[in-house]
Amino acid sequence: MGTLHxxxxxxxxxxxxxxxxARTDNETFRRLLDELTALMVYEITRDYPxxxxxxxxxxxxxxxxxxxxxxxxxPILRAGTGMLGGVLDLIPMxxxxxVGLYRDPDTLQPVEYxxxxxxxxxDARIILxxxxxxxxxxAIAAAALIxxxxxxxxxxxxxxxxxxxxxxxxxxxxxxxIYSAALDRELNxxxxxxxxxxxxxxxxxxx
Length: 207
Ligand code: PRP
Ligand code: URA
What we know:
By secondary structure, the protein is of the alpha/beta class. The chain has a single domain, classed as Rossmann fold (3-Layer(aba) Sandwich). The protein is built from six helices and 15 strands. Helix 1 packs antiparallel against helix 2 and helix 2 crosses helix 3.
């Protein structure tokens, strides 16, 4: 599991605990997801490149540094869209692609139903987001789609991962680091993460 990074920040962990709690309502769940995603994005963008620019403060001329990266954010529909706001709060200029995948409830295999990605992915910093890494099928397929369109610098950001999902994803995409707030115990026979937080899409959208 060489590419897994657990972001063990106290604020992230306490928000995740509230999200796991079955008593947390949809509105609070969405707000916590926004906040938690923003905190995680702050951590995973530490190595983004900067360039110098000239500017004038109210007192004098100086140089400052600004982000020098084209950022592309790719949520996996549907639950990944719940993480859009948290990333865009910090990187409002990010372009957004969408990959639509759902898990067949019987086979647990991902089924692709939509893919629209921005052009020129080759030099972009791509953040693939989905709250859950369970069997890994959805994230593996999404990363493969991004690579097939030329994407190279991909980071996968999730909230809760399973040992099975991390192993499968790392073996399919050893070049893509996984950033997760937690590595949970196991999957149940229906492919749900234990202890997990339930069905992320249902909890975000109230379905
Ligand atoms: C959930 C979740 C991931 C996927 C993870 O989506 O948001 O995309 O399952 O499972 P996996 O690692 O086993 O592929 P789901 O298929 O329930 O669709 P939804 O987001 O539309 O609810
Ligand atoms: N998808 C979810 O939303 N939750 C899980 O536990 C597994 C897959």
